[in-house]
Design goal:
Radius of gyration: 18 Å
Number of helices: 2
Largest sheet: 4 strands, antiparallel
Distance between the termini: 49 Å
Strand content: 25-35%
Strand order of the largest sheet: 1-2-3-4
Helix content: 40-55%
């Protein structure tokens, strides 16, 4: 491989990694909202420390106490299911 192709491959790999890391960062407002929703549903949680987005209005929330919940919207209502 030529030096130019190696440099281009390295740059593209770095850009892909940076894009993945930017997507993985969680919005503190979303974590706070999920904490509130879970508490309003009467489920034990404490505080949501991480969340994985599954789709539009669909998250898997991990709490500081070890509980995990799926929080999603069905028929216009918020549903919290323990995982």
């Amino acid at each position: 491989m030529s030096r130019r192709k190696l440099v281009l491959a390295a740059v593209l790999s770095t850009l892909a990694l940076v894009a993945q890391l930017a997507r993985a960062q969680e919005d503190p407002a979303v974590l706070k909202d999920l904490t509130s929703v879970i508490a309003l549903q009467g489920q034990p949680c404490g505080q949501v420390v991480s969340a994985a987005k599954q789709g539009d209005n669909d998250y898997i929330a991990s709490c500081q106490d070890g509980n995990r919940y799926r929080v999603f919207v069905r028929d216009g209502r918020v549903v919290v299911q323990k995982q």
